């Protein structure tokens, strides 16, 4: 018996690829580093939602082309959800809700279309609800959308011509 060759063929359409990547959440957009996260929690401003808390702060200007203009962090406290399974599920749902709703932020939605002279923003979504009543993805999406709109209205955004605010509602 002859071994089978597994060849992967991919059909890529130019319009389809850019639309598909618009909702991605690459590793470069995840906030990392003890110093950055510590300063976010100590000096960041807060927006309260029903079961989410958004903490945000601006840092150094974005000069490099490959640097994500928005970095995001998702956290669930052990006191609210003692079981790791519940914490991980809630974080997965929060990541998915943000990934689908990040287009609300004009000019910051994708790293390729960042405006000049924009400071890098770090966002932290903290879950404040209860573990025994995990909200659905749709509830999290509406809350994330609401918090991102509040954040965008509080912060002056420098948007290039052609950038638009996408509303998934």
If you had to describe this structure to a student in words, what would you say it looks like?
The chain has 169 residues and is an alpha+beta fold. It has a single domain (28-154), classed as Ribosomal Protein S5, domain 2. It has helices at residues 14-21, 34-43, 84-101, 137-154, and strands at 45-48, 52-61, 70-76, 119-127. The longest helix has 18 residues, at 84-101. It starts with 13 loop residues before the first helix and ends in a 15-residue tail after the last helix.
Topology:
Layout: H1 14-21, H2 34-43, E1 45-48, E2 52-61, E3 70-76, H3 84-101, E4 119-127, H4 137-154
Parallel strand pairs: 3-4
Antiparallel strand pairs: 1-2, 2-4
Helix pairs in contact: 3-4
What is the string of helix and strand elements? HHEEEHEH
Number of strands: 4
Computed over alpha carbons, the radius of gyration is 18 Å
Structural class, judged by helices and strands?
A: alpha+beta
Average the pLDDT over all residues and give the rounded result: 75
Largest sheet: 4 strands, mixed
What is the spatial order of strands in the main beta sheet? 1-2-4-3
Contiguous low-pLDDT stretches (5 residues minimum) are 6-18, 109-116, 156-169
Explain briefly what this protein structure is:
With 169 residues, this protein is of the alpha+beta class.
